[in-house]
Amino acid sequence: MAHHNLYFQKQGLGAILLLDALHRLYQASATVGFPLVLVDAKDGVAEFYQQYGFQPLGQYPNKLFMTMKGIAHNIAP
């Protein structure tokens, strides 16, 4: 679970960390073989993930997913 400090907000660090994590997960998926990434976003944060290609999971607006194909298309080099 992430801890939020107001000092670090609005500096783009969340995006940097997310993109790094997605890149690492994409690389690991070649070995481990998992098909997607799930996120359980806090209230009001789902839009942040949607900017990067995550999609809502059914009727749960705070649960989002992105397939490895989506990561390859949207994020991975």
Structure description:
- It comes from Acinetobacter seifertii.
- Helix content is 42%, strand content 21%.
- The chain is an alpha+beta fold and 77 residues long.
- The chain has a domain at 35-77.
- A three-stranded antiparallel sheet has the order 1-3-2.
- A hairpin with a 2-residue loop joins strand 2 (55-57) and strand 3 (60-67).
- The longest helix has 20 residues, at 13-32.
- The model has no long low-confidence stretch (mean pLDDT 85).
Q: What's this model, at a glance?
A:
With 77 residues, the chain is of the alpha+beta class.
Which characteristics define this entry?
77 residues; alpha+beta; 3-stranded antiparallel β-sheet; 3 helices
Task: Itemize the secondary structure elements and their pairings.
Layout: H1 13-32, E1 36-40, H2 46-50, E2 55-57, E3 60-67, H3 68-74
Antiparallel strand pairs: 1-3, 2-3
Proportion of strand residues: 15-25%
Q: Secondary-structure element sequence?
A: HEHEEH
Largest pleated sheet: 3 strands, antiparallel
Q: Uncertain runs with pLDDT below 50, 5 residues or more?
A: none
What is the number of strand segments?
3
Helix amount, in percent?
40-55%
Strand order of the largest sheet: 1-3-2
Calculate the mean pLDDT score and round it. 85
Distance between the termini: 28 Å
What Rg is obtained from the alpha carbons, in whole angstroms?
13 Å
Please tell me what the overall shape is: globular
Q: Helix tally?
A: 3
- Helix and strand content put the structural class at alpha+beta
Protein name: GNAT family N-acetyltransferase
Family: Belongs to the acetyltransferase family. GNAT subfamily.
Keywords: Acyltransferase, Toxin-antitoxin system, Transferase
Organism: Acinetobacter seifertii
